[in-house]
Design a protein that fits this description.
The protein is mainly alpha-helical and 822 residues long. Helix content is 71%, strand content 1%. It has a domain at 582-657. It has helices at 24-39, 55-76, 85-92, 95-102, 110-133, 137-162, 166-173, 205-225, 229-248, 252-266, 271-304, 308-343, 345-348, 353-374, 383-390, 397-415, 425-433, 446-479, 482-485, 489-501, 511-526, 541-581, 585-596, 603-620, 623-639, 644-656, 660-669, 678-697, 701-725, 742-754, 758-766, 776-791, 797-806, 810-819, and strands spanning 180-181, 184-185, 189-192, 195-198.
Length: 822
């Protein structure tokens, strides 16, 4: 018999069979759901990378989730009703993808926005399934085991990659994932400026740290709750691998937020279990410290060169420490836990008794952190981890840059306040609003990214949905007995941990992580403090058939869409492979047509199609090919107006046909969208001089002045940008290069020279000079620089001597330039 829902007026859940009998259809649904959860993380955790190579797994996930939705309908259609608060959550969850559909109206990228609509549909399906299946005590227990089992496999997979077994790991999963290339799972151990970092299936260390943080607390909860000896040993055994993995991610965000989440979770526990949680953290933490150095060193060595003895040594340390902690955990649970519970029972019955240990542990955690950061105690840690700990402060680059992201996101929101700029809005628009030239297609804050995508309206709907579920769950949790509380607390642990970490990172850009969060929402909703709604209560079969019919129709549409998008994605990948191996226009066009006949604005294929038409036009000068290329690009820009590659292709097309004036107009008009792209401004200034000089030769003074003015305005933008970058806080890096390049200095200086601004021209040209006078470009810069000085009645003997020493005839060329009048 399943547990009743929380609340005094709650009734037995409609999803529970009084005889605890589960139909065959429901078993198929549960098995399919578990297999889906197992498959998803090994598809790079379904990362929404906003690129072609990340598409297929997401579309497969949409297709699978839709099939699961049909199974859900078949399993529960007789029990669907709209009478209680929980029932109406099944309607409310449909509003989440609906807000993304509405945001398509103002989407900055239709392609990215459509993908987000489909991802939201996955979440809605996961939530709906979870709400119903997790009302069954038996199924809830199975899903608990599945979540932990899958998570432990992910941890083992990561450590297998760290300790010398990437080929074995790849062979184990390579048959059902495309993330394996050249015999290895891509970036299971990523390398950045900090050295190798463990990422397991995620390819991003910080998100893996968020996942591990949630898993650590889930494992401790399961250990304390477990009655069976094998459960205690299993969960105890995994504590060291989890904590070791957290450390190997080198994630500062994870290390900072872990104690915060830990303390909050302690508030939900009775003092006896609070003490047990702390004991297990201390034991596992101590064991981790003992073995962390040799395991870290082994992994670093194996990353450079494989050695069986080194790998074996690392595994021995890990396994021995894990066994030791597992045995200790079993002993404590078997012989000490019950005595501890009885011993503090009188204290536990006191009001606010659950507050004192979390407060005390917070103080202890702060003291421990200070000792690790500012004393020789940190020397027990590996060097790479010491460096990361020493860099934890609010004045370091990653923190300062995140605050910049958030301010820029608010600027974006100001232009799209109500319904947002659609899914993928940040990726499509961040260059338009960025404060400095960073590169980040993720806002590093789930809530801020969600806000700019669906606007204030969509954000309010999501926050209301999330807060209502959590509030109702906590309200019911407080009222229930300790035994009943534990049945679904795992879902709160996972959801809360991930969402807290997502305040500072883009974990929810991984659809697998989003699935876990919505599974958590569903788990909490399944047992929340549930009440009937008098005014919104609809009984009878009619409302059931209406809801099932609507969801069924939507599911069919989503299924059809996912199938078509899968066909399109496979065709796009095939077309790219054809381009690599063939020079035949018709063969390449046929391959691209397969994709574009399904999605006529699929960006990668559209750009390839326009490129091959342009190439043929360049060779044949046949207007038909030019018109086809331009038609494709214009069609694409209607859906993707901020796509830089499409804009560049259009400019290139116009220039190929000699439509330089139109090309320059686009280059100038769109410059504001890429305010920190120095290449864009370098091209703009160079073309401003080139076209202005042509106009001068044609004696078109108005056009010359127009082009020159545009060039100098662009140059001034670069100068002001460089000055702005000097105001960045100390510790924050500017990002991409943004400086006066030799080409910018040369062309802006020429424009000033031809406007008879000799002194200004000399100052501008000097900025582009380098020491290498063997470089022809530098020689040209020097000639114009010296001519500008001569015209202004000045000289620079050092530069003059360097140039004449390499190019004696330059003296005459300088005199000729200086004698020119404009």
């Amino acid at each position: 018999m399943s547990n009743p829902v929380y609340g005094k007026s709650a009734k037995p859940s409609s999803g529970i069979d009084p005889k605890n009998q589960i139909s065959v259809t429901r078993w198929i649904l549960v098995i399919g759901f578990i297999l889906f959860l197992f498959w998803a993380p090994f598809q790079i955790a379904l990362f929404n990378g906003q690129m072609l190579n990340f598409e297929k797994p997401i579309y497969w996930a949409v297709l699978i989730s839709t099939l699961l939705m049909f199974l859900w309908i078949a399993s529960y259609y007789k029990e669907i009703k709209l009478e209680t608060q929980r029932d109406w959550l099944l309607v409310a969850v449909l509003l989440l993808p609906l807000t993304y559909v509405i945001s398509l109206i103002s989407a900055a990228s239709h392609y990215l926005a459509t993908n987000m609509v489909l991802i939201q549909c996955i979440y809605a399906v996961v939530f709906a399934i979870a709400v119903y299946i997790l009302q069954s005590k038996q199924i809830n227990h199975i899903i608990h085991l599945a979540i932990l089992g899958i998570s432990y496999v992910i941890v083992g997979f990561g450590l297998l990659n760290w300790l010398g077994g990437p080929n074995l790991a790849a062979n184990l999963v390579g048959w059902f994932t495309s993330a394996v290339q050249n015999g290895k799972y891509i970036d299971a151990v990523m390398v950045d400026s900090n050295g190798p970092r463990l990422t397991s299936v995620f390819q991003y260390a910080n998100t893996y740290a968020a996942f591990l943080m949630a898993l650590l607390f889930a494992a401790i909860f399961s250990l304390v709750r477990s009655i069976k000896w094998y459960g205690q040993l299993t969960h105890g055994f995994m504590l060291v691998p989890i904590i070791v993995s957290i450390m190997l991610t080198l994630s500062r965000t994870g290390l900072v937020l872990l104690p915060v989440v830990f303390v909050v979770l302690l508030l939900f526990l009775k003092p006896a279990k609070q003490i047990l949680w702390i004991i297990y953290c201390l034991i596992a933490g101590a064991a981790t410290v003992i073995v962390l150095n040799p395991i870290t060193s082994a992994g670093l060595a194996l990353h450079e060169q494989y050695s069986a003895s080194t790998a074996l040594n690392g595994w021995i340390y890990l396994i021995v420490a894990s066994i030791a902690v597992a045995v200790l955990a079993w002993v404590i649970q078997s012989y000490a836990a019950s005595r501890l519970t009885n011993g503090v029972q009188r204290w536990s019955d006191r009001k606010l008794s659950s507050l004192w240990i979390p407060i005390g542990s917070s103080i202890v955690a702060i003291i421990a952190a200070l000792l690790l950061l500012f004393t020789s105690l940190k020397n027990i840690l590996p060097d790479s981890i010491q460096v990361r700990l020493e860099n934890i402060n609010f004045n370091q680059h990653s923190v300062l840059e995140r605050f910049t992201f958030y301010r820029d996101a608010l600027k974006l929101l100001a232009d799209y306040p109500i319904i947002g700029a659609g899914g993928g809005a940040w990726a499509a628009l961040y260059e338009t609003y960025q404060n400095n030239p960073y590169t980040s297609r993720q806002a590093h804050n789930f809530f801020m990214q969600y806000l700019v995508e669906v606007g204030i309206l969509g954000f309010i709907i999501f926050m209301a949905f999330m807060i209502f579920i959590i509030w109702k769950y906590i309200r019911g949790y407080i009222r229930q007995s300790e035994q009943d509380r534990e049945s679904h607390f795992l879902y709160f642990i996972i959801t809360f941990s991930i969402l807290v970490h997502s305040i500072l990172d883009f974990n929810m850009s991984y659809a697998f992580i989003g699935m876990l969060v919505f599974l958590g929402f569903g788990g909490m909703a399944a047992v929340m403090d549930n009440k009937p709604l008098k005014k919104l209560s609809f009984k009878g079969a009619g409302i059931r058939y209406l809801y099932v019919g609507a969801v069924g129709i939507l599911s069919i549409f989503v299924l059809f869409t996912s199938v078509r998008y899968l066909q399109s994605s496979y065709a796009a990948v095939d077309a790219q492979q054809v381009v690599q191996t063939s020079q035949d226009f018709n063969e390449i066009k046929t391959a691209l047509d397969k994709d574009l006949s399904i999605r006529d604005t699929h960006p990668d294929s559209l750009l390839l199609m326009a490129e091959i038409y342009q190439q043929v036009y360049t060779q044949t000068q046949d207007e038909q090919y030019y018109n086809e290329a331009m038609a494709w690009i214009n069609n694409g820009l209607e859906e993707e107006p901020y796509n830089k590659n499409m804009l560049k292709r259009k400019i290139s097309l116009l220039q190929t046909k000699g439509e330089n004036e139109q090309a320059f107009a686009i280059q100038e008009e769109k410059a504001a969208n890429f305010a920190w792209d120095i290449d864009w401004y370098e091209t703009l200034i160079s073309q401003a001089f080139e076209y202005g000089y042509q106009a001068l030769g044609n004696q078109d003074t108005a056009k010359k002045d127009e082009y020159f003015a545009a060039g100098l305005q662009a140059y001034q933008h670069v100068v002001e940008g460089i000055e702005h970058l000097k105001t960045l806080p100390e510790g924050q890096l500017q990002g991409r290069a943004f400086e006066i390049t030799p080409a910018i200095a040369l062309n802006a200086g020429k424009i000033q020279f031809m406007k008879n601004q000799s002194a200004e021209a000399a100052a501008t040209l000097k900025q582009g000079l380098t020491e290498d006078m063997n470089d022809p470009a530098n020689q040209e810069l020097a000639r114009w620089y010296l001519a500008s000085l001569q015209k202004a009645g000045q000289t620079d003997e050092q530069v003059y001597n360097q140039l004449i020493g390499i190019q004696p005839e330059a003296d005459e060329q300088i005199d000729q330039l200086a004698s020119l009048n404009f």
